[in-house]
Fold these 2 entries.
Entry 1:
Amino acid sequence: MHMMYFTEQPMSAYDAKAGLDYGATALTFSNKYFDPNEGSRLYNEYLEEYILAEECGADGIMLNEHHNAPFCMQARTNMFAAILAAVTKRVKIVILGNPLPLTENPVQLAEELAMIDMISKGRLVSGFVRGGGQEQLANGVNPAFNRERFIEAHDLVQKTWTQPGPFRWEGTHYQQRVVNPWAIPMQKPYPRVWIPGVLSKETVIWTAQQRYPYIALNTSLEATKTIHETYNQAAAEAGYTAGPENFGYLIRVHVQDTEEKAMQNARQFMWMQGEFTGLANPVWANPAGYFSPSGRRGFVEFAVGRATNPRGAPTFEDQVNSTMIIAGTPDQVIERLKYLVEHTRPGIMGIWANDGSVSKEDRRRCIQLLCGEVMPAIKEFGAGLGLKDPWEANAPVHLRYSTDIAGQKVAAE
Amino acid sequence: MSVVWTDTVKEIAGIKLHLSRAGSGPTVLVLHHDIGTVDRLPFYDALAAKFDVVIPHHPGWGKSERPQWMRHPRDIAAVHAWLLADLGVSGVSLVGLGFGGWIAAEMASLAPVTYKKLVLVGAMGIKPPEGDIADQAIVSYIDYPRAGFHDQAAFAAVYGDVTTDQLEAWDIAREMSFRTAWKPYMYSQTLPYLLGGVRTPALVIWGDDDRIVPLSAGQAYARALRDATLTTIPACGHFAEMEKPDAVARLATDFLSRS
């Protein structure tokens, strides 16, 4: 089992009342409330905490990016990935992920990722995402072509990594005269690609068709079960049987020496008023054309306030009771995580451990207990359940490299 | 007098295009807004009392099928020009409403002597010299149309409590607006240079409280076209033909009837 440390890198050093008064903490909430001196302090503290997570035993550091919102300070996930490539020695650098549709030049993205892979000496896991609706608006990218751009950019990156240049790309959304970057990945056939997601069925099916692991981002146990069923069916249609190495799960966990302190800090997972991506107008999160047309009718009613959020608005207590948030001493957390692992059977696990304004001292203690005590216990438990990660299972990087599918064309070495 | 409208479907550019038609006389092609159109409006009836009025749903809007390939209002202009050819009509006048005004301007710029008259109402398509065209992407489905009315009672008169069907139609219309006019948003950087060739006389009508397209864009249209007059309607927003149907119909009918 592969266990990763994750934080959204919250920019918590701002006046929370200003956000509540304005009524939004995303997209249009003014960056006049952003204090770069505090930003500098936090970036450096978060960097030190990643190094601590490696020292304490984490298998991987999971990174992501968002824009125009205080809940996440990473505006470019490749920047932290590049830094970690140089300052860490052992951990996998797991980008979950680069928002492919946001790029106007997938070849340059392929180039940057190849650089990170080489600098890290082959430790990159290169996840890709569609990016939330707000990310499209913040970057001026057309939400109506989000999925088309995601797939085409992926195909171009994949070809750039695996086929010697120069070649030409004349696609629908991308045209490149000469694809021939002098930077190619060290890992062959190419760095592992994992796809994180929340609810989009289309993405789950596409991910299974590629034979990439799908990382469910803190979905409910019920929703996670549905994701697995959808994936398993698409996998069967593609000719293989999905196993734990095809599934990952991200869960919010906070560990301290006492239950009381852990619970108190875990409440910070609600600092964005319970929304992962901050308070926002629904049409920012789901601009027209971004969402699956099958959900259009329900969404428009929600967007004008006639229906409740399809994702619901569970309280902190609700989320603790339903194992969406776990908090406590190492023993308490291990017990809850075992329950979760038994029911979701992931080969990959991300632990989102610190959010909001948890103090530096508490963040570090949480990482020590999490990576030093909780992760080893869960890895041992997972091994007993046969939960192998993609390396342990020697899983193919992509469907085309499968050796267990009759008639599957294996790409040239 | 009640006007009898006939709805038909035409196969054009690989898609099924929906259109409504009524009246007799010289043909007037009415091009609707970015938010689509309701089926019947007093303004449409007023035009049909004097003219052969053709109102297509833009490709991808309302009841017209979506062309996946469509990328620009100029593509929509070509589809409507194709429609007129298939209908076998000539000496056609164009009435373009908001986003439809942009399409009408594209049609005129590509065929400088073809159309008889051009009426632009709060037309998009030109970067306003002052102010910006309001961005529907960051406001909700109801707030955007509301912003286009000076008097909210006029909004209520057309849309009532707003049905879920209407909300869905606005979402689909918004998606088509994004697919065809996302960047730059709701204007062409080349159209202003091409309008000078248009020989068709033009009337440019603007609500004096248009919060969607600033009046400066109307002034820019009037300057760029050879033969254009700009008229404003008091206490009126962007959706002028819905908010002040009588005033817009009178101005348009007078102008279109003049020889």
Note: Chain B has one domain: 6-257.
Entry 2:
Amino acid sequence: MELFVQLLANTLQIGAVYVLFALGLTLIFGVMKIVNFAHGGFFTAAALIVTSVVPFATVELGAPLWAGYLLAAIVAIVVVLCLGALVYGIGFQHVLKDLNGSFILSIGLLLILNGAYLAIYGGAPRTVPQVLPGTVSIFGAALTAQRLALVIVAAVVTGGLYLLIERTRLGLALRAVAMDQEAAMLQGMPFKRVALYGFLIGAALAACAGVLMAPINAVTPVSGDEFLIKAFIIIIIGGLGSVPGAIIGGLFIALIESVGGYFFDPSTATLATFILVIAFLLVRPQGILGNVE
Amino acid sequence: MWNRLPGVWICVAFAIASVLFALLATNAYYTSLVVWVLTNAVLASALRFVLQIGELNIATAAFFGIGAYTTAITAVLLGWPFWLTLLLAPLVAGALSALFGWVTLRTKGPYFLLVSFAVTEVVRLVYTQTNAIGGNSGLVGMFPPMAIEAYYPALAVALLAATLFALYGVERSDLGRLFKAIENNDAIPRSVGLNVVFLKVLCVVIAGSAVGLAGGLHAYANNVIAPSDFTFFVAILALAYVKIGGEGHALGPVLGAALLTLVGQWVAGISAWENIFYGAVIVVTLLVFPGGLVGLAARARGLVTRSAR
């Protein structure tokens, strides 16, 4: 029982970040019909900014750690939003719905971003001091307070996104554009603006994931790329463009990883997920909740 | 096909010149550079070959690695003869491409792209997890036999150039037209009774065998291979060559590979700037002249003929 709860807790904490990351990717795909390879760049930017703003705020400004971290979170999200708007304005708005073109563009951007991070921060892993020290015990399963906070924040953000998509006018526009862009435009929806909002929401989700992961794992200029590969697998399983699919897929992959990582070893678990995806595609090429094109 | 295309003869002359250069040049750096340029040209051409059916095949990198590993395993661990190890590289890569295509070509577009990406990572993980083939550090000691060693770069260049011509030949044949028809709208070829899935698999197999051979030659040219040589990044660079050179013509990827490989020689080593350089080249090309070098040339020729009139 204790083992079971522990594995479930591990699944939730790994899954929380996967879900945030994959949600952004799937949202961008749904609205713009592009596969954004540079999505990891947003994650890494946010995490790196946290690692430089937190020491600045606590040492230079003398702020308490939690305030420094909150400031860092705000700065990181704002900077990533600006970066997202810039990238959209220069590049992506010219290749909307062009699968190969946008993919190539996003690869170019990823190379530039990775190179820039490497040039600015160097390759060494960077860390942030623990914001919430201590461990919490739930039904006998040990969970650090930080990771528990991560799960809660990720759940709140995911819930917020769900409400945004299901209950607001913007959400309605996003869903309409994702379903049929031309029909949505005929109803008077400004496609390019809706696509920009979708892209920025996706970037903000990646930034959230980066901010939440910074105090937990050491950050390197390629941190985001590891999540990117996982996130691709998640959205293949869940169905490209499907929000509930990304949530189910994220938790599912996290479950395989935590159970497989416990009974075997992490690389076997990774290998198992890849093989599972390929087997999965044989049976259901469009993913759990995807639509047939 | 030959007499209608004077450009082909120029390419043949150029290929012969490269072989002679690899044969006669004494500086090992330059001969290995020529081999490397042609290896990249084959990778890029194979990527473009599958783009003919409208799919972006990241697993090009995986089949390059499979070719290299096939040659290395049979040569180093099993001690099989040189020609056999070289022949097995395209055969094994082609057979595995058939399996890969049969499984994954049920999907298309973004799904195929992401799956081919995942397959590349799986294959690389398998190398790192298998201690019998050297795990993370790979395999060392693939040498061509003494009798051939001096001519090896010329042999490699000749085989790679022949592969490029073969890919071009298929593209110009009726089979190539079928591939284009599938890209335009795969319901139409299906409606006249063609087996579209088989044709798609065939396209992936031809490209897979070509990069498999390039991988086998690479193993002997480099003497050392490791899993990190065969990440998805190989396919991404190949894509950059295709984009820079231009997708519109078979010459595009070759020109792109030559240009970027040679220019890349002096940004190489400083990894941060190397990334920024390749990234900037891709972004600028895509946004400013999407047709690449070949597209620019076609446009320039259009202007010339128009003004001549």
Note: The interface with chain B takes residues 29, 35, 90-91, 94-95, 99-101, 103-105, 107-116, 118-119, 229, 232-233, 235-236, 240, 267-268, 270-271, 274-275, 277-278, 281-282, 285-286, 293 of chain A (CB under 8 Å).
